[in-house]
Amino acid sequence: QAGGPKVIIIGAGMSGRISAGEMLSHAGITDLLILEATDRIGGRIRKTEFAGMNVEMGANWVEGVNMDPADKIIKEVNPIWSMVHKKLKLNTSLSNYSHLSSNTYMEEGGLHDESFVQKTINRASEVQQYGDKLSSKLHNEDITVMAMQRFHDHMPYGPTKPVDMVIDYYMNDYEFAEPPRVTSLQSTHPLPTFANFGNDVCFVADQRGFESVVHYIANKYLKTDARTGAIVDPRLMLNKAVKKIKYTSDGVVVKTEDGWLYKADYVMVSVSIGVLQSNLIRFKPHLPQWKNMAMYQFDMAVYTKIFLKFPRKFWPDGPGTEFFLYASSRRGYFPVWQHLENEYPGSNILLVTVTDDESRRIEQQLDEQTKAEAMEVLRKMFPSEDVPEATDILVPRWWSDRFFRGSFSNWPIGVDRYEYDLIRAPVGRVYFTGEHTSQRYNGYVHGAYLAGKASANILIECVKEGQRQKDGANGGIWKYYVPGKYE
Ligand code: FAD
What is the ipTM of this complex? Predict the structure, then answer.
């Protein structure tokens, strides 16, 4: 068959695009069709207009960057950083969290004593380092990050004081979007993203949007209009929500919500693990029990970036003020704040992050209510300022959105390498990709990018091997090998 077998890719986010593009096209598999449910490409990398400028509703940081030239241990460069920094030259700013001790606000106003907060931060950092060591000693057993804290006699029944809570939140939930009692120690300590690429994180603040990265890759293999730059390749179809995937030993048939049927030899599913856990896409026959068991056990976390626009600035700016914390007696209540004065001077925009249950609560209420809550918090933080009412608010709703069902995956206790491999494993002619299938970097943009490549490679290998075994008993489908649980 000219152009090799036909492959349908479901989803045009970072992973789908990539697996479709660089890898499959490279291997001569050019007969592709990408079906994307929304009216755009990029998925969870998405800019939107807010109060006259573009902000990022989804991914914002390139995480795992090494900005320290003296650090010779880090050898790998995050592939997303190469694209953002070298190829596209997007504006970025290095996020500096080292001043949090002088920017932690009391529940009822005013700043906490710096040395007191610093002590809490030092202790929490020491516990994290202990966690890295303990994790390397665990073999087949895993424990939660909270259990690790107990081993180190750190808040054995959980943090109770506002400062302990907000520092615990900043160190854990702010990264993983779930609390330490959920997160697997072994899979997050040390975190491969920082261990392999470097400890720095760079905030993408560019009016072209972080999504330029996805367009950059797409443009490598999809036809674009030379004048507008828009993708005009018929192999990409937008507004095509897939509702059914029928697979047999001969091929696959994909049905979209608008009633169309698309036939192919293989399908690559790149939708989020949250979507896979919902019943948006029906598989016929049902996916096997081992597959669903593995997928249902993984976590889709929720991370919400709330933007607020003000008529004027009332918060401190200048060096060392970008990030500030609100130490509430309610854990996770409007905890981590960032002003955008470094990136967009004079924009008068604040960004506050909430996660998990707070995200779900906030997604379900009116934005006016969320704004009122945020205003109350700000007026408590700055009691001596005349805090003006925010003129605009933006509350992204990733969890309610049936095409995402959350923001990124978090590795929970109970899933080990074996179950994780099963999440990625193909089922017959159905292949899987997405950040949640990344071998080392689940949850991140670079994870999605590398997972797309890896899954495409699995497909290419299976196709090659299948062709070799064409007359074999399995109808030309090569069985992907998942090492056993105790191998
Ligand atoms: P997606 O981007 O979800 O792509 C899947 C595509 O499938 C989507 O376009 C979707 O519309 C489509 N789809 C879904 N259902 C169907 C269907 N039925 N039919 C057809 N198409 C369908 N990562 C970082 O590295 N740094 C960060 O700072 C960061 N912050 C984040 C903050 C937030 C709020 C969010 C939401 C994510 C963040 N991430 C961050 C994570 C990062 O954005 C993701 O890991 C990555 O973009 C996922 O890419 P993907 O291709 O796996 O999935």
Answer: 1.00
